Amino acid sequence: MFDNLQDKLEKAFHVLKGHGQVSEVNVAETLKEIRRALVDADVSFKIAKEFTNTVKEKALGADVLTSLKPGQVLTKAVRDEMATLMGGTASDLDLSQKPSIILMAGLQGSGKTTHSGKLANYLKRKKTRKVLLVACDVYRPAAIDQLHVVGEQIGVEVFSDKENKNPVDIAQKALAHAKANGFNAVIIDTAGRLAIDEEMMAEIRDIHQAVKPQETLFVVDSMTGQDAVNTAKAFNDVLDYEGVILTKLDGDTRGGAALTIRSVVNKPIKFIGTGEKMDALDVFHPTRMADRILGMGDVVSLVERAQEQFDEDEARRVQKKIAKNQFDFDDFLGQINQIRKMGNMKDLMGMIPGMGKMMKNIDLDDDAFKGVEAIIQSMTPDERANPKLINGSRRKRIAAGAGKDIQEVNQLMKQFAEMSKMMKMMQGAGGRRGMAQMMR
Ligand code: GDP
Predict the structure, then answer these.
(1) Tally of structural domains, the chain
(2) N or C: fewer beta carbons within 10 Å in the chain?
(3) Which atom of ligand 1 lies closest to the CA of 108?
(4) Are the C-beta atoms of 171 and 134 separated by less than 8 Å?
(5) What are the beta bridge partners of residue 247?
C-alpha cells in the first residue's frame, strides 16, 4: 500500500538524518521533500502546502531544532497531521433505524457491487444482522447476476426484479419485502456510469429521496487519484452522503484519494477495500493509516484480524491435544487455515512495523502454505493422526504424492518435531500454550 509515497517520505526524513546538526535550513528542505512526495502521490498542491505549513508550525512549536531526536519530532508531527487530514478518528455506521438502509453510489467499476457484498458480510458477521441485498441496476442484467453470485457466496438473500425497469420501484418493493420478513439491514446496489451524467445523478437522487437511507456511501476507486476526489465532490453535491468507501487500496495506488477526500468533501472515509474477496474490507482508521503510510506498521489491525478469526473452541481443543502431547498434522492443517483466514500474507506482513518495506520486493506466494499443505494432504489419515508412523519409505511415498522432493518432506517432519517439542516446553512453562495461544 502506498509504496511510492512511503519511499519518498523516508528519503525526505533522510535529509535530517544525514546531517549532524539540524538547522532551519534542513528542516525546510525536509518539508519541501515531503510536499513533493505528497504532490507525486496525487495530493493537490494547495493541500500539500497547507499540510507542510501546519507540520512546520507544530514541529517548531515542539522545538525540533533543539530536540535530541529531531527526526522523531518531525515524524510525529507528520504522522499526527496526516491522521488529522484523513479525519482524525474512525467513523462507524449509524444503524439505529430498523431496518437500516444503506445506499451504495458511485461510478461503474468503482467496486459498488463487490463492496455491497463485503458490507453485507461485515454486518452479518460483526453486528449479527439479517441483511438483504438489493439489485437496482436496471441497465446491466450482468450486474444483477453478479450480485446474486456475491449473495450466494456469503449466504445473504438478494432481492431483484429483472423485468422491472424502474429502480425506485424496485427499491421500494425491496424495503417492503425486508420489513415483512424481519430483515434489519438493507443494502441497495445502484447502477453506475462510466462518467458522471445528469441522468444517473437524477436516478440516484430519486432512489435516495424515495428510500431515505440512513447511510449513503460513495464508493470510489482509489487508483483514480485526483479524479476520485473530483467525483467524490460531484456526488456529494447531489447526495450529501454520509461517508466514503475507498476501494482497491491493495493495488498500486498512490494515496492521494485517501489523504485528501476528507478535506475536500468533509465526509469521512468509513471503509477501505483491500482485495476482491468478500472479507477484504477494513474499517478506516486515520491514525493507523498514517502509521502504515509512514512505514510504522499497523499492529492493532493485525491483532484485530487475528481476534476476528480466532475460534475459541478450536483453540481449547488444540490446547488439550498439546497438553497430552497429541498435536498432530490434522491440527497443524487447522492452524494453517486459521492463519490463512486472516488474509493475504504480504498484506499481513505489511502491518508489522518495518516489515512492509522489507517485504516489498520479495515475491511472497499469496498462498505461502500451499507446499506444506500438499505434503500433509498426501499423508494417510493414520499418518496425520500419528506422525511417529512416518518412516523412510512412507516419506518417499508422501513426497511422490505431493509432487515434492523427499528433502521437503524431511524438512517438514523436522520442523514439526521441533514445533511439538517447543509446544511441550511452553506447556511446561505454564500459561501460554502453543501456536493456538500465541494467536490470541
Ligand atoms: P461496480 O461496477 O461498481 O459494481 O464494480 P464491481 O464491484 O463490479 O468491481 C469492479 C472490479 O473491481 C471487479 O473486477 C472487482 O473484482 C474489482 N474490485 C472491487 N473492489 C476491489 C478491491 O478492493 N481490490 C481489488 N483488487 N479489486 C477490486
Answers:
(1) 3
(2) C
(3) 2
(4) yes
(5) 221
User: 190: annotated binding-site residue?
Assistant: yes
The CATH number that applies at residue 36 is 1.20.120.140
Grid coordinates representing 3?
Answer: 509504496
H-type alpha helices, 86-166: 112-126, 141-154
CB-ligand 1 contact for 250 (6 Å cutoff): yes
Q: Does 110 count as an annotated binding residue?
A: yes
Q: How many residues does the chain have?
A: 440
Tell me which of 156 and 351 has the higher pLDDT: 156
CATH of residue 134's domain is 3.40.50.300
Say which CATH number the domain at 351 has: 1.10.260.30
How open is the CA angle 276-249-86, to the nearest 5 degrees?
A: 140
Q: Is 433 in the pocket of ligand 1 (CB under 6 A)?
A: no
- Residue 224 lies in domain: 100-296
Instruction: Give me 343's grid cell.
Output: 488474509
Which atom of ligand 1 is nearest the CA belonging to 274? 23
**pLDDT tens digits, one per residue of 277-333:** 998 899 999 988 888 888 766 666 666 767 666 677 777 887 788 778 788 898 888
Picking from 79, 36, 38, 72, the residue whose alpha carbon sits closest to that of residue 55 is 79
The pTM of the full predicted model, rounded to 2 decimals, is: 0.75
- Ligand 1 pocket, 109 CB below 6 A? yes
Q: How many Å lie between the centroid of ligand 1 and the Cα of residue 95?
A: 25
Cα 111 to ligand 1 centroid, rounded to whole Å: 4
CA of 420 to the centre of ligand 1 (A): 42
Instruction: Tell me the best of 104, 107, 112, 114 to mutate to test the pocket of ligand 1, counting ligand atoms within 8 Å of each CB and taking the most.
Output: 114
Residue 355 lies in a domain: yes
Is the domain of 324 the same as that of 419?
yes
Taking the CA of residue 247 as reference, the ligand 1 atom at the shortest distance is 23
Is residue 114 within 6 Å of ligand 1 at its C-beta?
Answer: yes
ipTM of the complex: 0.98
251, 395: one domain? no
Range name among 115-119, 260-264, 336-340 with the lowest pLDDT average: 336-340
